[in-house]
Specification:
Layout lengths: L1 H17 L8 E2 L1 H8 L3 H13 L3 E4 L3 E4 L10 H9 L3 H26 L2 H19 L3 H18 L3 H4 L2 H13 L9 H16 L2 H24 L1
Antiparallel strand pairs: 1-3, 2-3
Helix pairs in contact: 1-3, 1-4, 2-3, 4-5, 4-9, 5-7, 5-10, 5-11, 6-7, 6-10, 7-9, 10-11
């Protein structure tokens, strides 16, 4: 129960900061946090500690908890990404995250084609087949799970641990698009075919082909998001 309450308060306060309800420079005292969220002193203290590790707030003696400037936040934290996608700044968050994917994932696909282990190549082929099957069945929840696993594996197979650590960021983007209705009603055949193309290119060790197909995936995602937000 205590853990659940901690998460509830963390989500509420984090979303308020990420969404601009609590502007940079806002000061919150421990007793105000307890009153505002109906939290115990222990829960309030734990939540503040988490927000400080995310660089959303800082604590100053005799002042309180101060909301930091957005430029100082840890924008790679999956929880912050989730709060931003749930809030009024969703369109901007999706744009910046898609730009990040455009810069990273095509390169990761290139290096995966050069460095992936035989086991990685086999798993990537299998995940592409799962995507084809669940797309035909219009099973969006299962499709999302396979899609997250596909991109996670591709980033890891690049052999670059810095790319691999971005997997949780990409997972939040994929999940957020689905949860907020920013995906087509059913997986598009072109997108599924491009995932298959990436898997085949990585399997064949064809770096240019893998990079090109992954760039097409990210470009298509960008266009779908723009259309959904505009609509």
């Amino acid at each position: 129960m205590g853990s659940d309450r901690h998460e509830e308060v963390l989500d509420a306060l984090g979303a308020a900061i990420a969404g601009g309800e609590l502007a940079p420079g806002s000061v919150l005292r421990s007793d105000e946090l307890q009153e505002r969220f109906g939290a115990s002193r222990t829960v309030a203290r734990e939540v503040v500690r988490v927000l400080e590790t995310m660089r959303l707030t800082s604590s100053r003696r005799r002042v309180g908890v101060i909301v930091r400037e957005p430029a100082e936040w840890n924008h790679y934290d999956p929880r912050l990404i989730r709060w931003q996608l749930d809030g009024p700044g969703r369109a901007v968050a999706l744009r910046t995250l898609t730009e990040l994917r455009s810069g990273v994932e095509p390169c990761a696909a290139r290096f995966a084609a050069l460095r992936a282990t035989p086991e990685d190549r086999g798993r990537l082929r299998a995940l592409a087949a799962h995507l084809e099957r669940t797309a035909r069945a219009r099973d969006l929840p299962t499709f999302l799970g396979h899609d997250v696993a596909f991109h996670d594996l591709l980033l890891a197979a690049s052999g670059n641990p810095m790319f691999a650590q971005l997997s949780s960021v990409v997972a939040e983007v994929l999940a957020g698009r689905t949860e907020h209705g920013l995906m087509p009603a059913e997986p598009q055949p072109e997108a599924v075919a491009l995932h298959v193309e990436v898997a085949r290119a990585v399997d064949a060790g064809e770096a240019d082909r893998a990079e090109r197909a992954m760039r097409d995936i990210v470009d298509q995602a960008r266009d779908e998001i723009a259309a959904a937000v505009a609509g």
